[in-house]
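Subject: two folds for Thursday's group meeting

Dear M.,

Sorry for the delay on this. The cluster queue was jammed most of the week, so I only got both jobs back this morning. I'm pasting them in the order they finished. Each block is the input sequence followed by the predicted structure tokens. Could you check whether the formatting survives your parser before we put anything on slides? The first protein is the one we discussed after the seminar.
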Amino acid sequence: KLVESGGGEVQAGASLRLSCVASGRAVSGAAMGWFRRVPGKEREFVATVSSSGSSTYYSESVRDRFVISRDNAKNAAYLQMNSLGPEDTGVYYCAAQGASTWFPVLRTYDYDYWGQGTQVIVSS
């Protein structure tokens, strides 16, 4: 089970830090990722981090603004979001693989576990 937290409503230019904590099983052995569903669109890839945390990959739209990280000792992953804009509004989902495959892991169906999502609203 994955549980996200940290969403909220902020003004454009602000920052938020999302957290994702896994319970019931360790997720340290495989990649974790963040996706989002923005209004009117399908769920889209945001960022992913390798099992060790040494490698990361981002979508073009968030590169240079967002930072993904993980703490395997806490069975957790994080998404630091800076310089937020209205286009970042949406529901953010944490995902984890059940077993390590290739990296970067970009597609929703390559992840086995999902959180319920946390809402982020950015007003202009």
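Second protein, same layout:
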Amino acid sequence: VQLQASGGGLVQAGGSLRVSCVASGLTFSNYAMAWFRQASGKEREFVAAISWAGANIDYTDSVKGRFTISRDNARNEVYLEMNSLKPEDTAVYYCTADRDYFILKSGRFSPQYRGQGTQVTVSS
């Protein structure tokens, strides 16, 4: 199983960025997906999760109203659209997958699968 994240980069505060993750080696539509992030010197943090069909979506409070998670099961991709970015959003963003949505939603970083991260840097 591979989860390949991309789309990170450098953006100014207030700007927007979309990170993507393409999954292979699993039946994508059977898995809930989530994004976590880890800033330098800090613990890994839950950002957003989406159930296999998109019926359930959750966000951490700090990104509600600014970030949108979505998925395209035909493309085996999950996305995180990030708007109104703040310097405190700077982190490595990780894509994760688990059959159990509630494991991802719990915020405990114990997914069945995790990908390499993509760096998002927001300058002030």
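Two things I noticed about the second structure. Residues 101-105 form the longest helix (5 residues). The helical segments are 101-105.

Cheers,
T.
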